[in-house]
Amino acid sequence: MARKPGVSEPSEIAAFVADAGDKLIVVDARNPDFELEPGDAKSSEKAPLAQTSDGYRPAAYNIPYDRPTDSMDLSILPDTTTKQTPIITHCGGGGRGQKAKDFLLANGYENVINGGGPEDAECWAEFGEK
Known about the structure:
Elements: H1 10-20, E1 25-28, H2 38-46, E2 60-62, E3 87-90, H3 95-106, E4 112-114, H4 121-127
Parallel strand pairs: 1-2, 1-3, 3-4
Helix pairs in contact: 1-4
């Protein structure tokens, strides 16, 4: 599978994760409403949507990128998030992850990369458990 435009290379993701340490936030831009986004059902079979209540992917937050409004509810981000907090966005393969990255950058976040998603196994291996 070809890497989608804007998705960072695995080596860049690995360095970003290492530099971020425990400050890293992962934004899962997939939609839990699989009727609205049927492709998200497929990628959630490989990697469930971000969940923090049971400890799975403790740095990840499910903040769907809404295609009709080209927006995201950034109030879901932790209160400790600053404009410099290191953030990796992802969806299933990187398309919406790039839209999420662009949205965050447009809203003043400065330290954001697109990690692709579980369909890009090389990239996912660098941050998928975060």
